[in-house]
From TrEMBL:
UniProt keyword annotation of NAD present: yes
Residue positions of the active site: E220, C254
GO-annotated cellular components: cytoplasm
InterPro entries: Ald_DH/histidinol_DH, Ald_DH_C, Ald_DH_CS_CYS, Ald_DH_CS_GLU, Ald_DH_N, Aldehyde_DH_dom, Aldehyde_DH_NAD(P)
Domain Aldehyde dehydrogenase: 22-445
Organism: Caballeronia ptereochthonis
UniProt cross-references to CDD domains, sorted A to Z: ALDH_CALDH_CalB
PANTHER family from the UniProt entry: ALDEHYDE DEHYDROGENASE, ALDEHYDE DEHYDROGENASE ALDX-RELATED
An example molecular function term from Gene Ontology annotations: aldehyde dehydrogenase (NAD+) activity
GO biological process: aldehyde metabolic process
Keyword vocabulary terms for this entry: NAD, Oxidoreductase
Top-level division of the source organism's lineage: Bacteria
Record-stated family: Belongs to the aldehyde dehydrogenase family.
Record-given protein name: Aldehyde dehydrogenase
Length: 490
């Protein structure tokens, strides 16, 4: 049966939300054992459905190897579930906070309480990892979940729907299938938190819709992530990592290096080394079973358009070790492409590429690189390859990006204990690590008054104690006020 045939009407979505909220209120704080059971159920189901998901994804894309699905998605999901299960008691633990002298003998602590019902909206490019990791985080934090996967990988979304319906009741986890219209209705629901992964353009609409009910959002968006190669640092390790990050999933990765900044003296060596490395990764060229196709005809046409636009505007287009004729023998396959002499007038330097095309810009000084990055929207990831610590620190300290990889690409996403997210146009908030658990929990501050309390002595009528409290807390600053132009003291 095609689960997409009849998209749910808005009132249906609202009734699922009401049902989930009711269930949440009847059991608002699931204990650690219940949450672990939910995570274990999810883990078991993902492994049981492994082959079905690999097949569905490959059919959705046109081609994607089961190894790539395993390495880039399933391993991350299982790793994230295990991480959350392991850390859960620590994450859920009440956190003691400082109480200042005049509020003694009180106690202050933070309780991380489930928020309630979390909405999760996902894109198509990693349709398992980008649904299952947010889902695992939300249920680890004790929430109910409504999940809307992408319509562009509909076979995979249907498998996810079936899998989750088998292991969770609809008031625990509900999957909503449909396209942009359903997405728009979904984003208007009065969730307790909404995690959206997708394009910056749709992210803005989703945030606007969420604002109607003041729903807090985590936005995991896209952008142009630069890879900076330090002068003279063209070596096999660097190239392996850049080619891996760029060409995995046919370049359709949010944190893929979007463009490269290479020293002008290194350009020829970089081009040669990139081309050789591509040929080593994919000896059969883009018809290799290991090389992923482009997800839809529309995305394929957009990428061809980027290449044509760059060529027309004077760029040099180099096919990475394979010929386009061979690529043409398989559905929606674009060979790995390097673009040199790219300039900012070209679309390839303006839009997020999201395909196997790497434009290369040259630089003379690292300051030029830093200025170039800072003149553009803050990226989701920034990569630096080099061994000059001073230069590396200059790049890290003077640029702002969601995350950074040093001498590697995309591996930061696999670090379960690191927050993952963007900044500005590349996103808002983060998940993974304790940050993900906390994003889906309410940090409720609680102050418990002690039996004996100094603060009570400060009530009217005021006396000596109030004088003492004011004198000690409002005393003049010491010497350490910093700026010598600080002229308040009279
Ligand atoms: P998209 O924004 O088109 O779609 C994402 C989700 O939003 C889908 O479920 C879709 O059905 C829904 N949607 C589409 N139009 C909508 C609308 N008008 N209102 C509400 N919902 C709507 O993104 P995509 O094309 O699926 O994914 C590619 C983008 O996602 C790229 O920009 C990529 O960088 C980004 N991305 C980011 C991350 C991250 O973790 N930061 C990860 C993967 C992809």
């Amino acid at each position: 049966m095609n689960a997409y045939a009849e998209p749910p009407p808005t009132r249906c979505l609202t009734s699922v939300l009401d049902q989930q909220r009711k269930a949440f209120l009847s059991e608002p704080t699931p204990d650690v054992a219940t949450r672990r059971t939910h995570l274990a159920r999810l883990r078991h189901a993902v492994l049981a459905y492994r082959r079905e998901m690999e097949t569905a994804i490959s059919a959705d894309f046109g081609n994607r190897s089961r190894h790539e699905t395993g390495i880039m998605e399933l391993v991350s999901v299982i790793q994230a579930i295990d991480y959350l299960s392991r850390k859960l008691s620590r994450f859920m633990k009440r956190e003691r906070r400082h109480v200042s002298f005049i509020y003694q003998a009180g106690r202050a602590y933070v309780e991380y309480q489930p928020k309630g019902v979390i909405g999760i909206m996902a894109p198509w490019n990693y349709p398992i990892a980008l649904t299952m990791i947010p889902l695992a985080t939300a249920i680890a934090a004790g929430n109910r979940v409504m999940l809307k996967p992408s319509e562009l990988t509909r076979r995979t979304s249907e498998v996810i729907h079936r899998m989750l319906s088998e292991i969770f009741a609809p008031e625990e986890v509900a999957v909503v299938l449909g396209g942009p219209e359903v997405g728009a209705d979904f984003s208007h629901l009065a969730f307790d938190h909404l995690l959206f992964t997708g394009s910056t353009q749709v992210g803005k609409k989703v945030m606007e819709a969420a604002s109607k009910h003041l729903v807090p959002v985590t936005l995991e968006l896209g952008g142009k992530s630069p890879v900076i190669v330090s002068r003279g640092h063209i070596n096999q390790r660097t190239l392996n990592s850049i080619v891996f990050g760029k060409l995995s999933n046919g370049g359709q990765t949010c944190v893929a290096p979007d463009y490269a900044l290479v020293h002008e003296d290194d350009l020829d060596r970089f081009v040669q080394a990139y081309t050789n490395t591509v040929a080593r990764f994919y000896p059969d060229g883009p018809t290799s079973d290991d090389y992923t196709s482009i997800v839809t005809d529309g995305h394929y046409a957009r990428l061809l358009n980027l290449i044509g636009d760059a060529r027309r505007k004077g760029a040099k287009v180099i096919e990475g070790g394979v010929t386009p004729e061979r690529a043409a023998t398989r559905t929606r396959t674009i060979p790995p492409i390097l673009i040199t002499e790219a300039n900012d007038e070209m679309k390839v330097m303006q839009e997020e590429i999201f395909g196997p095309i790497l434009p290369v810009r040259t630089y003379r000084t690292i300051d030029e690189v830093i200025d170039y990055v800072n003149a553009r929207p803050r990226p989701l990831a920034l990569y630096y390859f080099g061994s000059d610590i001073v230069e590396r620190d200059a790049v890290l300290m003077r640029t702002t990006s969601g995350n950074v990889g040093v001498n590697n690409t995309i591996m930061h996403v696999a670090q379960d204990d690191l927050p993952f997210g963007g900044i500005g146009p590349s996103g808002m908030g983060a998940y993974h690590g304790i940050e993900g658990f906390r994003a889906m929990s309410h940090a409720k501050g609680v102050f418990v008054q002690g039996h004996w309390s100094l603060a009570r002595l400060l009530h009217a009528p005021f006396g000596k104690l109030a004088e003492f409290a004011l004198a000690t807390t409002l005393r003049r600053p010491g010497k350490n006020v910093g700026d010598r132009n600080f002229v308040l003291g009279r």
